[in-house]
Amino acid sequence: MRKNWPTPIKLAVAFLTAVPLLVAMPPPASADDVAPSTVKINEVESNGGTPGDWVELVNTGAAPVDVSGWVVKDNDDSHAFTIAAGTTMGAGAFLALDVDPVFGLGSADSARLYLADGTTLVDSYTWTAHAATTYGRCPDGTGAFVTTTSSTKGAANDCGSPSSVVKINEVESNGGTPGDWVELVNTGAVPVDVSGWVVKDNDDTHVFTIAAGTTVAAGAFLALDVEAAFGLGSADSARLYLADGTTLVDSYTWTAHAATTYGRCPDGTGAFVTTTAPTKGAANDCGTPSSVVKINEVESNGGTPGDWVELVNTGAAPVDVSGWIVKDNDDTHVFTVAAGTTMAAGGFLALDVDPVFGLGSADSARLYLPDGTTLVDSYSWTSHAATTYGRCPDGSGAFVTTTAPTKGAANDCGTPSSVVKINEVESDGGTPGDWVELVNTGVAAVDVSGWVVKDNDDTHAFTIAAGTTMAAGAFLALDVDPVFGLGGADSARLFLPGGTTLVDSYSWTSHAATTYGRCPDGTGQFVTTTAPTKGAANACPGQVSTSPWPGGAAVATADDANVFGTNMSGLAYEASGGATPGVLWAVKNGPGTLYRLEWDGTKWTPSTTDGWNTGKQLHYPDGTGDPDSEGVTLTAAGLAGGVFVSTERDNGNSGVSRPEVLRFDPSGTAAGLTATKEWNLTADLPAVGANSGLEAISWVPDSFLTSHGFVDEHTGKAYDPGSYPGHGDGLFFVGLEANGTVYAYALDQNGGGFTRVATIATGFPGVMDLQFEPETNHLWAVCDDTCNGRTATLDIDADGKFTVSHVYERPGSMANLNNEGFAIAPQAECVDGHKPVFWSDDSNDDGHALRSGTLDCTVVDLDADDDGIDDDVDVTFPPGTSHADDPANQTFSDAVLGGTTSGSILSRGGRTLTVSDAHTPGGILVNVGAGSVPAQFQLAGSGATIKLGRGSYKLTGSGKTSTVTTVDGEQAVVTVSVNGTPITLTVGEGGSVTYTEASAGGKVTGLSGIRQTGTVSVRADGVPATACTGIAIENVIVATTGNNQISGTAGDDLILGRGGNDTVNGNGGSDCVVTGSGNDTITTAGGDDWIDAGGGNNVVRAGAGANTVATASGNDQITTGDGDDTVNAGGGNNTVTTGGGNDAIATGSGNDTVDCGAGSDAAQAGGGNNANVGTRCETFGR
């Protein structure tokens, strides 16, 4: 502790520790007689000494030294302590000087010893921080200064005894190099001779003795390869003894192998933990803070109290995260972790970021060190999770949608027995008989091998086949009828293997007219479905199927790049009154800004007059605040009636919900706008998060509502505008982001009061914008990327309530964007049957906030015969002309629009179909309703059959080239027979496949130019599902007869031979080659090839790459190039030669010769006289 004294006080007597002189001694030597270098500074106490700071000297000489008048200073020459007169140090003696009354020693300071002249330096020591104990020489007087084991004022320094400073530091019990090892560390300040010391495991007869002459330097590590003496087990110990073999120095015991090693954190002193990585003979890898702290869970919608980001410390020690920074995808949004925040090892920390910023549906969470630039971890998503996004398992796994939010705790990834549910039951008239359908509601695949299904009789048990795994979200239909039939009054019960642990069950009292199924899938109650959907999502009562976008598929950006940035939200269109474009009004939610946009012929740009150049900042009626502005609308009065804006909160107090409607007068030239009226709806709406409030607003005229029999839920009678004086000529419909519900309000334009008139369900989890379209009388409700960009129309039904009439997919060419605004131009702006529509993208994807598309001007009547059901096939293009509701009409074409796609419907499969054009020369859009049998299509000029389940699809054909896209829903299955072998192309949701057929003699002879996006698989009949793993097939080549010469392409080929002696040349790429019985010769070039040569005496030459080669019985010659190859040779006398790489080789019975190349190779040879050539296979056995 540093002290400054105004007047130095020189003590006459210093604390002196010396051996009493009981015998005669020679007279003390003067400074001139004894070299000053025999007196050394030996130990320094700079913090917490007794009674304060002190400096210890030692006389290393053989004679006494008189140190009277010698001077000790710190790093300040004005601080001088003088040793008392008559002070003599005997040979080897220690002298402790209490310097604290004169000066204190600082954390970064010096101790300097001078002769009595105060200028001749004898010795010195400098340090940069206080020692945990003291700084002392080891050994005394001559060694370097180190941190001592304990303070020893006036005595020999405590440099630690060997048995107290040598510790077991790290243990490798499984898979070490070259085997198991134990690492020691010397935590002391001097070297330790460990010659003859002994290491044992938990068996005293297992002894490893350290070699003679082994010394461990101070702070050094020593790794001991104990495997030569004994191996360490999965439940074992490492024990260190002195050379006597009985004095225990240190030990550590474990119950299972570590995934890496067990090591102390920190080295030498900390507890044993599982290390991040083995560090044999070096400091342990305990993980740096930036490597062990991870983003673990993210709540972006509807959290408590708002959005939050959870961190987890995956390391073995606490981590101080004070000042660390969390950002979303906007660098200006910064949340700083509070000072003093420490995360325990394995601990979770939930950060409520919502008061600073809200997380969007397409956003990111990014974690930085306090500098704000060093990225620690990040996660991005494209839509809100139904629950949260979290790592499974915690800290290390991939992000998935969790089963439930677990703020500040371990993630809920779902157990198999909690996530697999009975989803649908067919008890009468199924195909081929009774069946029970399961669904995996979890976020990870579940192995259901051996699980048991029973009816209400325990003796009736159906066991699920081994190897059965259900992907996350997948359905599994089990045909139980061969084992038992389901009765009219019966049960379906699901058990874990063994048949006693019940997982789920459902009982019924009579057969369903269709099936019994959960609505919604996996979580809802069982109801009678509208149709069986075996192995697919249930067809639930009241469910509205999606339809293709009722306008053009083309979408274009409609603003200059990087003009508006992020947070652009609601839109409203002010018509010009004619065919020329009007004004597009737009609001931005942060900061709250209203824009007046004009069309310049190619894009929408801010008006340049009356102060609109950069938009106008919005404020509450008192002129303060920053309203989080989400939606905007106009009334029939136009601008004279004001611009109305829906808001979620005041951005200046962003943690508090404030759902309001504000009215602004846009006239004038002021730079900002102050609301002229305010309607705070907080008390009338459900409690929601601050960032989950009013997103949408639209105005609907009274004239429409009354003429269509709209019912006022407030009165329970037909809506009467006269009941709400001062409300104007219509109602305001607002949409809540938190629950997807629309609320209709009469807003008193004079007094500011309000009355809720109706509550309307949209079926969406959130509503982002609302638009009333007078020409169709539709109220359009828009969902963002959370719903894959879908839009719904709401119409007044026979009961006077707004209900969902149609749900539309987003336009075909538009990505799944975070669209929060939507506006429709009037019918007067129609061109060639289409009128403009506009979207605003809150995330400003690709630098653009505005996009434009088209909507059909003439209403497309999908129910031409007015039977309440969409017509089976719309085959007349473009929409707007008469529809052909004729089941005999099986053809379709987009030729009217100049397209090249045409074809026919082979079978409807009992499903409702809607077929329409894409409004560009780009194919046919197909919407398929519920059913149990796929609908089947065929494109003109193609030999393929396209099977479609429930969902939306796009089919495009041009000559022999076809493209099949699964926009949404169940997978599309394309089957084409190539030279008599069925080839199946399966296209999952969001995926697309393009292929070109080669034909001759009326049959398909090959496929080429296969392009895959998303989830697509290419399989050949008779070839195992595991074949071609990891290969994106580009071409399919099938032999016609046996004894073929087959040549592949430079791409990734699927090559199928026939029985006989085939010769196959892959010619490059990653090829999948399958031949039948016969003596085949297969040669491939570079690529990761998959080869099954079948039976016969085959010759296989696989080029460089990670190849998989299999043969059946026969005397095969297999050669592979460099790469990590897997070879499975069948029975026979085989010769296997591999190149460089880590190869795995297995052979069957026979006399095999295996020649392994460079790398770590393992060969498992079957029965027979087998040879390991040159013993080059590192592992060789049976």
TrEMBL record:
Q: Name one GO cellular component term.
A: extracellular region
Keyword set, alphabetical order: Secreted, Signal
Signal as UniProt keyword = yes
Which is an annotated Pfam family here? Answer: LTD
Main location, first listed in the record? secreted
Keyword Signal annotated: yes
InterPro entries, per the entry: Hemolysn_Ca-bd (IPR001343), Lamin_tail_dom (IPR001322), Lamin_tail_dom_sf (IPR036415), RTX_toxin/Mannuronan_C5-epim (IPR050557), Serralysin-like_metalloprot_C (IPR011049)
Domain LTD: from-to ranges: 27-129, 144-256, 271-383, 398-510
Question: What range does the record give for the signal peptide?
Answer: 1-31
Places the protein is found = Secreted
This chain's source organism reads Planotetraspora thailandica
Q: What is this protein called?
A: LTD domain-containing protein
The GO molecular function terms of this record are: calcium ion binding
